[in-house]
Amino acid sequence: MKKIKTAALCSIRFGLHQQPLIKGKAKYLQARHFNAFGSIENAIDVFINEYEPKQLLKDGDVVLAAKGNRNFAWCYRAEAGIMIASSVFFVITPDQQKLYPEYLAVILNLASTQQYFLQNSEGSSIQSVRKTVLEELMIPLPNMAQQQNIVAYTNHFLHMQQIREQLIEKNKELYNAVITKMIH
Predict the structure, then answer these.
(1) What range does the domain containing 100 cover?
(2) Cα dist. 4→28, 94, 99, 120 in Å?
(3) Within 13 Å and on the Cβ side, how many CA atoms surround 15?
(4) Range among 28-32, 68-72, 177-181 with highest mean pLDDT value
(5) Is 19 exposed, middle or buried (0-12, 13-18, 19+ CB in 10 A)?
(6) 131-140: b or e for each residue (b if 16 or more CB lie within 10 Å)?
């Protein structure tokens, strides 16, 4: 187990606070773009034009929603396009020789980690995770092969969850169609 703040393990910075635009150079990532599983679901429809290159997400950066009731994490990959995280997020850059980025996102999304954030958050109406709370988080650090196995299992689990949700929706539609037909 190691603390996230360990200098050789991760660096942490805040996302950028800026007024979003309808068109621009970089996609502006916001919490509303994510579904309940912490995956991008909604098209990123807001942009920004003015930023410093260091504010761009780099391949393998992990964003953690630090404000609000959902403190989900997501791993950015370059194929998602040029993107900047809004100020709702912490941007965590792991040392990819020691910490597989998707594994870090899995750990941050665990129920036990979510409970840790909830117990240590501030704010009366909008909960907020402080940077020091994130820095003090202890994470298990198995070897890279084991980290990748954990990610593969998690991806399979999330895929199955999405299929289950789709089945529930189809069942609701079928139920409504049958009842409507029976009534008429």
Answers:
(1) 2-141
(2) 25, 9, 10, 16
(3) 26
(4) 177-181
(5) exposed
(6) eebbeebebe
Alpha-carbon distance 37 to 66, whole Å? 16
Domain boundary at 124, 141, 158, which?
Answer: 141
Q: How far apart are CA 61 and CA 8, in angstroms?
A: 15
The torsion angles phi and psi of 172, rounded to 5 degrees, stand at -60, -45
152 and 132 belong to one structural domain: no
The tally of domains found in the chain comes to 2
Going from the C-alpha of 107 to that of each of 53, 78, 115, 139, 150, the distances in angstroms are 28, 21, 12, 7, 10
Per-residue confidence at 7, pLDDT binned at 50, 70, 90? low
Taking alpha carbons only, the member of 49, 51, 70, 68 closest to residue 13 is 51
Same-domain pairing of 89 and 13: yes
149 pLDDT band (50/70/90 cuts)?
very high
**Do 157 and 92 fall into the same domain?**
no
| 131 and 177 housed in the same domain | no
Q: What is the pTM of this model?
A: 0.86
**159 shares a domain with 71:** no
